[in-house]
Amino acid sequence: MGKRSGSKRKEKKNKVILPPELPPEIDDDDVVVSDEDVAFYGRDTRNAESFNRFDQEVIDRYVGRAHGQDEAAVERLYEERQKRKAPEASRRPREEDDEVDPVDALPIKTLQGELVYNIAKKARTEENTGVVKSKAQENGAEAKQGIKKDEVKGKSKNKKGDDKVGKLHSHVLEEVKEELSAEELFEKKKAQLAELGMAMLEDPESNIRSLNDMLSISNDKDQKVVKLGLMSLLAVFKDIIPSYRIRQLTEKELTVEVSKEVKKTRYYEYTLIRFYKAYLQKLISLEKQRHFYSVAVRCMCALLDTAPHFNFRESLLASVVKNLSSSDDVVRKMCCETIRSIFINEGKHRGEATIEAVRLIADHVKLNDCQLHPDSVEVFLSLRFDEDLGEDETQEQKVKPKKNKRWQNQEAPKQLPASDKKKTKQELISKAREEVDADLRAVSFTLDPRERKRIQRETLSALFETYFRILKHSISTSNSRSKANVVSPGASQPLLAPCLEGLGKFSHLIDLDFMGELISCLKKLSGYSDRQDEMPHDNTLSVSERMQCCIVAFKVWRSNLEALNVDLQDFFVQLYNLVLEYRPDRDRGEVLADALKTLLWEGKQQDMLRAAAFIKRLATFALSFGSAEAIAALVTLKHLLQKNSKCRNMLENDSGGGSLSCLVAKYNPEAKDPYLSGALASVLWELSLLEKHYDISVSSMASNILSMATLNPTQNPIPILNVNPLEAYRDLSIERELSKPASKALSLNLKKKRRGKEFVALSPDVLQKADCSVDKEELKDKLQSHFAVLRGISENERLRAELNHTLSSINMYKEYKKQKKKNMKSKIGRKKVARV
C-alpha cells in the first residue's frame, strides 16, 4: 500500500497543470483612465505601494508551470481546453449581433431546459459616439420610431445596397482574375478539354452534351485556348462521326411509337448534328480572321478528308475549293491534297463528292475569269474514269430484246389474262421491291454500274467545260494583247498549262463533235500563221505552252485516229520553228523532250524531206544548249535516221554536201517551212564537234550516230540508250543535279539581272557592217596566255588528285594499324581468361 501511495504522489507531482489564460490584449489607445483615478493615486502615493509588493518569482513560477514538460502533452492539453470552450462560445449570444438585449427580451425554454433568446442582426450602427450605451437604458419609444423609419425607407435602401454589392462583387472577381496568371488559366482549360474529350471518346451517347462545353471553351478570348478547343473538337468529331449520313425524320416516322433504344439513338444523332453544325459555323466564321485562318482551314480539310459522306459536306467543299488558290502556300497545298484525296478515294462517298467538287471548281474558275493559281485546276489530273465510259449503251439495249423476241412471241398466247386483284398485288410487290432496293443502295457504298456511269459522265462534262472555257479565254486575251502590241509571255494565262496537260491526259474521252473546234483552238494558241514569209507576232504565250498545244493536238488525233481526219502538218511546222526559240533558263526542257517524243519519236515513218529538216535542226540545237537538251535531241535524231535510211547521206563529209537531190539545191537555215529548207543538201558537221563534248553520254551518242555512215541502209548501230527523248532528258537531268556541287545561293539582284537578259539574234547584214579587225599578234598572245592558264589548271587538278589519293592511302594504313592492335589486345585478353 505504501508503494502505491508513493506512486500516486509522484504522478500528481509529474502531472502537467496548464497556466491560466491571459486576459485579452487591449491596445493602449482603448484604455481610458478617468481623472478621479489619477487624482486618487496622485494625492497619496501609498495607495500604489501594494503593486510593488507583488513577488515576481512566484508569479513567474505559477505562470510557467508547463515549462520543461513534454511539448506534445502540453499541446494536447491546450487543444482540449480550446475544444471545451468552443461550444460555450457558440451557445453564448454575441452582443455585437444582438438588436434586442437578452435582459429586455423574454427567452424561450427548450425541452432540455436551455434558455434561447430571440436574436437579430443590427440594421445599422451608431456613428460619432465615443461611449457604448446598453440597450436597457434606451427609450422604447425611440426604438419604435426607428423601426418605422426603417420600414418606410426599406425599398430604396435595398436597391442601393444591391447595386453596391454587385459592384463590389465584380470588382473582387476582376482582382482575382488578374492575380491568376495566364498560364494557370490555360493549363486549367487544357485539362478541362482533355477531360471532356476523354469522356466523349469513352461513351459518346451518354456524354454527348460535353460537346456544348467544349464549344463554349472555344469561345474564349485567349487565342491559344480557341485553337486548342478547335483541334480537340476535330479529334472528337473524327472519332464519333458515324459511317452513314444522318437524314431528317419524316412526319410519319415521328408519329410512330418506338422503343427506348431507338429514342436514345435518335436523340444522340439529333444532338450530334446540332453541335456539328455549330462547329462548322464556328470554323467558317474564324476562317475570315487572320489569326485563326490556317487552323480553321486545317480543321475543315481534315473533316472533309475523314468523312466526305457525312452531313454538311457542301459547306466544307465550298470553303476548301475557295482556298485552292490561296496566297498561303501551306493552306493551298493542304486544300489541294484534300481534293485529290476525294477524287482518288471515291469509295467513301460513292462519287457524289467528286462531281460536287468538280462543279464548284468550274464555278470558281468562271467567277474569277480564269485568273487563279494553277494548282486549282491541276487537281483535275487526279480524276479517274472508266475506259468504257465513252461507249454507247444503246446498242446493248437494242440487242437484248431481239434475243428474247422469239420466246416472248411463243409465251404470249399461253398466258392467261390476269384479274384486277392480281394486277394490284403485283404492283404492290413491285413497289415494295423498288423501295427495298432504294434503301439498300442508299446504305451500301457500292454504286450501281449505270449510276456510276451517269456520275462519271456528268463529272467529265463539267471537266471539259472548264478546260474549254480556259482555252477560249486564252484565245481572247492573246488576241486582245496582240492587237495592243503587249508582250508578256505567260502572264495572263496561269491556268493554260494545267489545262493543256489535262486535255492531253483525257483526250481519249473527248466527244467527236468537239474535235474540230478543239484542233482549231490549239492551232491558234500555238501561234501558227498561214503566211510563210513572216513569223506571227502573237507572243503572249510562252514557248513551253505553245509546244504543249502541239502535244495535245497529236494526242487527241492519235486517240481518235479512226474517226478524225485532220492534217497536222501545221503543228510540225510550228514545232520546227519553236525549237530555235527555246531558252533553257526561261522554258521547260521537259516539255521540249515530250514534244520531240510525241511528234517525232512515237509517230509513224516521217516524210523524207521533213525528217531531213528536223535532223539538221536538232543537230544545230544539240550543239547550242546543255547536255540534257542535247541528249534528247540526239536520241530523236538517231531515231529519225534509223526510220529514214536515205537521210544517212547527210553523214557524208563531202564539200558539196549530201549526194541526194531535192527541190531546194542549197540549204536555207532560216526557212520557216521544213519542206523548203533543203536540208538534204547539207552535212551534219555538228556531230563531229559533239564527239568532243564534255559530257560522255552526249559524245558517245554522237559517235554512235556517226558510225551509221559506214553501215548498210538496212543495218543499225549498236544501241546505247534504249529510251525515248523524255526519259533520256530526265535521266541526265537527275545525274546533273546529283553531281552539282553545293554552292551559295545567288542574290536576288543577280537573279533578276539574269532573268531580264534575253537572247538577241543578229542579222548577217549587221555582222558584215561591224568592224571585226583584230591584231593577230595580240590575239596570239592572249590565246597563248589563256591556254597556259588552262594547262596550269589541269596540272593543278592532277596534282591535287594524286595528293588526295596519297592522303587516303595513309589514312587507310593508320586505320589498319589501329584495327590490328585492337585484335592483338583482344586475343591476349582471351588467352588470359582461358588460363584462369
TrEMBL record:
GO terms assigned for molecular function: chromatin binding
CC annotations in GO: nucleolus
Record's compositionally biased regions (Basic and acidic residues): 77-95, 145-165
InterPro entries xrefs: ARM-type_fold, CCAAT-binding_factor, Noc3_N, Nucleolar_cplx-assoc_3
Domain CCAAT-binding factor: 547-702
Record flagged with keyword Nucleus: yes
GO biological process: DNA replication initiation
Keyword Cell membrane applies: no
Annotated stretches, region: Disordered: 1-29, 77-105, 126-165, 392-427
Compositionally biased intervals (Basic residues): 1-15
Chief location category: nucleus
Domain Nucleolar complex-associated protein 3 N-terminal, residue spans: 188-279
A Pfam family annotated for this UniProt entry: CBF
Keywords, comma-separated and alphabetical: Coiled coil, Nucleus
Protein localization: Nucleus, Nucleolus
Domain of life the protein comes from: Eukaryota
PANTHER family membership: NUCLEOLAR COMPLEX PROTEIN 3, NUCLEOLAR COMPLEX PROTEIN 3 HOMOLOG
Similarity comment text for this entry: Belongs to the CBF/MAK21 family.
Protein's name according to its UniProt entry: Nucleolar complex protein 3-like protein
Organism for this UniProt entry: Dichanthelium oligosanthes
